[in-house]
Amino acid sequence: MSDRPLTIQGDRTMLLDVHSPSASACREDIIAFSDLVKSPEHIHTYSLSALSLWNAISSGLTVEEIIGRLRKWSRFELDDRIVFFIEDQGRRYGDFVLEEYDDDSLILTVRRPVFALQLKNEKSLMSILRPEDDRSFLLPRIQRGTLKALMIKLGFPVDDRIPLKSGHPFEIRLNSSFSPRYYQTDAAEALIGNGGPGTGFGTIVLPCGAGKTIVGMIVMAKLSTNTLILSPNITALRQWKRELLSKTSLREEDIGEYSGEKKEIRPVTICTYRVLAWRSGDDEEYRHFDLFKDRGWGLIIYDEVHMLPAPVFRITAELQAIHRLGLTATLVREDGLEDEVFSLVGPKRYDTPWLELEREGFIAKAYCHELRIPLPEELEVPYALASGREKFRLASENPLKTDAVKKLIALHKGDKILIIGQYIDQLKKLHDELGYPLITGTMANRKRDELYQGFRDGSLDVLIVSKVANNAIDLPDASVLIEISGTFGSRQEEAQRLGRILRPKSKDSHFYTLVTEYSREEEFAQNRQKFLSEQGYSYTIERI
């Protein structure tokens, strides 16, 4: 074969020439055992990791098949170090096998005696394991997820051979008038697999606006079981309900809302993370965790799984017998808990380049702009004397940003515009000066929904929003977003905010971030933009 588009490097990264005629075929072969890291315009970067290899092997691929695919597409002879790494990690999968034992316990069997000795010297593991003989250990069923998370951190995967439970059946059908996109169907099938051990759980990564909710509905229809959906906020909860009612056979009485306002438990129940993680005090129990046990759930969907609160990881560790689906645009978490998502919700099962979906018209074409704004002369001395955190806030709340916002609104007259920021005082001043409606987290849900609906139906062209609108807000006609301040260097927040304007539409979208030049805000902006730059987006930088 003369066309070999893959360059495999010694650090286990792989560079795919997307202009090659066989780039698509190569991508289909390697995505099963590698992770997409960057997808700019010409070269896409994938990486081989222990986790990506274990995931592939758990789904049925062999070490020989993985090496064979790499040799098939590699432009150069495969480095011996790469072959050794794949073979070494491949051997590790199967060294620890988890199986049924009795009604109360599971049994972990260790293939190599030396590894059994190693486990006995790990205090964290021996707090949940009880030796049965030289090569096997018993553990309570409830510790299934905890064991897998601890083992991953030690560099050993657990071959979990315990099939998932079906849950209480409940028929869910997609409406015949609705046709999912090909990648949404592919993503759902990647999660469900062949239905055997090692399948039926994991994370789907798709850009904002690409229809992750649809993937969830396809999985629900395929499993047809009682389903619990966890969403980031009340607005997202009600968007899920609208989508389910319009695109599936579900009726109003089939869907329960479990929020601060209602506590309904029905065959399909949608709950907010905030309610789930609520407790009356630091020493109190999480009262709503019983929701996980109040019905025979066969599927749990974690919407915007990158926002999964740390306390919910604890209960998620106990739910390893249930089908699990995580949905997100980016697995970047600023708290570094990506491994917890992989271990407890499940590994990444599907990913696709943002710009590829843009080229196919499934998400809007977007242009990113960074506008540099000078600090007013009267703030120069206070800024010079301020602490690091105070410097960032002074720069973020630069009053000259208001004039920049006015110019951008005039430039995009007739477009649907969102103005978003971190600091409520700054947003209130903008609201007072410009007169546009302001949505914050303290606003009543009913009023908030009215303003969002006004934006959707055309009676409002401009909304000022706090970070409450960072995630899971469906405003399909929004084509301009003006970011006046953000959460320090949060890459995840930058990606989510761009996502507010990526719904497909007839016109291009524009994402403006306003940054005070020669300030700490400028430094953080570079980090914020890193994830989107790796997806192929470039920022034009202008001074105004």
What would you say this structure looks like, in words?
By secondary structure, this protein is of the alpha/beta class. 37% of the residues lie in helices and 20% in strands. It is built from 22 helices and 23 strands. The strands form four sheets. Strands 12-13-11-14-15-10-16 form a seven-stranded parallel beta sheet, sandwiched between helices. A seven-stranded parallel beta sheet has the order 19-20-18-21-22-17-23, sandwiched between helices. Strand 5 and strand 6 form a beta hairpin. Helix 8 crosses helix 9. The longest helix is centred in the middle third of the chain and has 14 residues. The radius of gyration is 25 Å and the shape is globular. The model has no long low-confidence stretch (mean pLDDT 89).
Topology diagram in text:
Elements: E1 6-8, E2 13-17, H1 23-30, E3 35-38, E4 43-47, H2 50-58, H3 63-73, H4 80-92, E5 96-100, E6 105-110, H5 113-120, H6 123-126, E7 130-133, E8 136-140, H7 144-154, E9 159-160, H8 182-192, E10 201-205, H9 212-223, E11 227-231, H10 234-247, E12 255-258, E13 268-272, H11 273-276, E14 299-303, H12 310-316, E15 323-328, H13 338-345, E16 348-351, H14 354-359, E17 366-373, H15 380-385, H16 388-396, H17 401-411, E18 417-420, H18 424-434, E19 438-439, H19 445-457, E20 462-465, E21 480-483, H20 491-499, E22 509-516, H21 520-528, H22 530-534, E23 539-543
Parallel strand pairs: 5-9, 10-15, 10-16, 11-13, 11-14, 12-13, 14-15, 17-22, 17-23, 18-20, 18-21, 19-20, 21-22
Antiparallel strand pairs: 1-2, 2-4, 3-4, 5-6, 6-8, 7-8
Helix pairs in contact: 2-4, 7-13, 8-9
